[in-house]
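PROTEIN DESIGN WORKSHEET
SECTION A - STRUCTURE
LENGTH: 293
TOKENS:
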């Protein structure tokens, strides 16, 4: 029973911990959640908190490390000075640099972006993906046709020249270092992305590289993949990705962003933010600027 309670408490922290929550001892958090959210008698909750503090700390630390490794936003963090205190991941500590403070303040808009993404139409989400490529530095990202898109929804070409520490002023090899960014957008509300979705993207890119098109190439005009061109395979979804999907992503080298990651990316880049606050109308204008037209 107490093991099940610990699982529920940790799940609540992972899914619902306030982003700006102040530091609190983990034992106190366990006790309060057990009483307030899971209706545990106070005496039993106190015993539970004492007995499960160490295990909960280890489990939360593992979940936090896993989230960081996968670049997935995490709602909680550990206090920089007191190891057994947890806080909201956007709580500003006195020692934070100005850059860190600003980054945490932007992430406070994260939940607004989650709601915004859920309410998009599928074609609006494709426009969002095109906008993401623009934010990443692609000068002229493209959307494919609304129908018969050959399994590819968006693409762009990114020059690495300005991102190299040894960029040459005179003509040099750095001017030839470009990479294609080719992706698929899945606007899923409840369905998880699974391995067939990911395999479809890989197959579609390989067919495009081979110039094997069912429509003669009309939908992918501008995507001129050569045999040895480097490609980043991008899979963006408003939903979640299955465990097997993550295994395939890791094994293949594909790059993904789920709904939480996209929300965090938009927040980090102040998309649709007016005077420090997320504004839906401003975000829609941004979407329209990257739409099919």
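SECTION B - SEQUENCE
RESIDUE ASSIGNMENT:
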């Amino acid at each position: 029973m107490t093991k099940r309670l610990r699982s529920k408490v940790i799940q609540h922290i992972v899914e619902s911990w306030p982003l700006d929550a102040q530091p609190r001892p983990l034992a106190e958090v366990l006790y309060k959640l057990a009483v307030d959210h899971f209706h545990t008698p106070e005496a039993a909750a106190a015993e539970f908190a004492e007995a499960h503090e160490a295990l909960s700390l280890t489990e939360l630390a593992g979940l936090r490390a896993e989230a960081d490794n996968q670049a997935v936003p995490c709602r909680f963090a550990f206090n920089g000075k007191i190891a057994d205190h947890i806080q909201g991941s956007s709580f500003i500590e006195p020692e934070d640099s100005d850059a860190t403070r600003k980054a945490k303040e932007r992430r406070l808009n994260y939940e607004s972006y989650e709601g915004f993404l859920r309410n998009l139409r599928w074609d609006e989400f494709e426009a969002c993906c095109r906008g993401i490529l623009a934010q990443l530095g692609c000068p002229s990202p493209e959307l494919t046709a609304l129908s018969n898109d050959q399994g590819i929804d968006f693409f762009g070409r990114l020059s690495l020249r300005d991102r190299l520490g040894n960029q040459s002023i005179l003509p040099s090899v750095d001017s030839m270092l470009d990479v294609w960014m080719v992706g698929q957008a899945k606007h899923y509300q409840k369905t998880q992305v699974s391995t067939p979705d990911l395999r479809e993207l890989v197959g579609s890119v390989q067919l495009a590289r081979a110039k094997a098109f069912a429509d003669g190439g009309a939908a992918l005009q501008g995507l001129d993949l050569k045999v040895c061109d480097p490609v980043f395979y991008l899979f963006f979804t408003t939903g979640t990705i299955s465990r097997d999907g993550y295994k395939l992503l890791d094994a293949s080298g594909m790059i993904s962003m789920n709904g939480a990651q996209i929300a965090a990316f938009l927040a980090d880049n102040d998309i649709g933010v007016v005077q420090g606050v997320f504004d839906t109308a401003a975000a829609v204008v941004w979407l329209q600027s990257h739409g099919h037209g």
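SECTION C - NOTES
The longest helix spans residues 42-69.
The first strand starts at residue 24 and ends at 25.
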